[in-house]
């Protein structure tokens, strides 16, 4: 039985879930199929504001008629209840006028493809005591005008044992088994499409 079922919006259930029981009592009743399976997927509605668990500080600047631009981003944890933010991957589609990038990461590895203009920074885990940053310069096309808008930063991450939606399993009951099963719940927050406009 989930705690805070009112948070759920646009729920998609595995076919093993008894939907009538969910509709009437907000209880998930099901006979699990063999093997791994996803019991349900859901989105948190706009009325239920969720604290974003990470932040991005950025300073990306282009100057008219200059062959150099500045690039600086820092990623940090926020509202993680002491849990580690891991699997952090930062990507950004740079403007056409960016020819190359000379960057130094404080942690992780980065690549910039001068053909596709895609910047990728594989950060890994975030250490709150030493926030990861990526700083440097961008080589710009000579005489190119300043881009109409700065690039968008896309972020992927995951946090084990944290459900930022606030949805929790209140109780887990099992019936019809002679052996004593191990009952445990594993939570994970994973970024879907997380974008920062610069």
UniProtKB/TrEMBL annotation:
Native organism taxonomy: Eukaryota, Metazoa, Chordata, Craniata, Vertebrata
Record-linked InterPro entries: Adaptor_comp_med_subunit, AP2_Mu_C_sf, Clathrin_mu_CS, MHD
Keywords of this entry: Membrane, Protein transport, Transport
GO term, biological process aspect, one: intracellular protein transport
Organism: Notechis scutatus
Gene Ontology cellular component annotations, sorted alphabetically: clathrin adaptor complex; endomembrane system
Protein name: AP-3 complex subunit mu-2
Domain MHD: 1-197
Cellular localisation: Endomembrane system
UniProt cross-references to Pfam families, sorted A to Z: Adap_comp_sub
Listed Gene3D superfamilies: Mu homology domain, subdomain B
PROSITE patterns: CLAT_ADAPTOR_M_2 (PS00991), MHD (PS51072)
């Amino acid at each position: 039985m989930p705690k805070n079922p009112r948070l759920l919006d646009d729920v998609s259930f595995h076919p093993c879930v008894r939907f009538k029981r969910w509709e009437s009592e907000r209880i998930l009743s099901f006979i699990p199929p063999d093997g791994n399976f996803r019991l349900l997927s859901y989105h948190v509605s706009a009325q239920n504001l969720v604290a974003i668990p990470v932040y991005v500080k950025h300073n990306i600047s282009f100057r008219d008629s200059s062959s150099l631009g500045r690039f600086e981003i820092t990623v940090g944890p926020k509202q993680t209840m002491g849990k580690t933010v891991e699997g952090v991957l930062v990507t950004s589609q740079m403007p056409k006028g960016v020819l190359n990038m000379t960057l130094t990461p404080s942690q992780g590895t980065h690549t910039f493809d001068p053909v596709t203009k895609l910047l990728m920074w594989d950060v890994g885990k975030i250490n709150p005591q030493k926030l990861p940053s990526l700083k440097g310069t961008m080589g710009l096309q000579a005489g190119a005008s300043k881009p109409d808008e700065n690039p968008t930063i896309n972020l992927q991450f995951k946090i084990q044992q944290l459900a930022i939606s606030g949805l929790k399993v209140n109780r887990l009951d099992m019936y019809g088994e002679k052996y004593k099963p191990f009952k445990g719940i594993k939570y994970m927050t994973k970024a879907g499409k997380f974008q920062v406009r610069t």
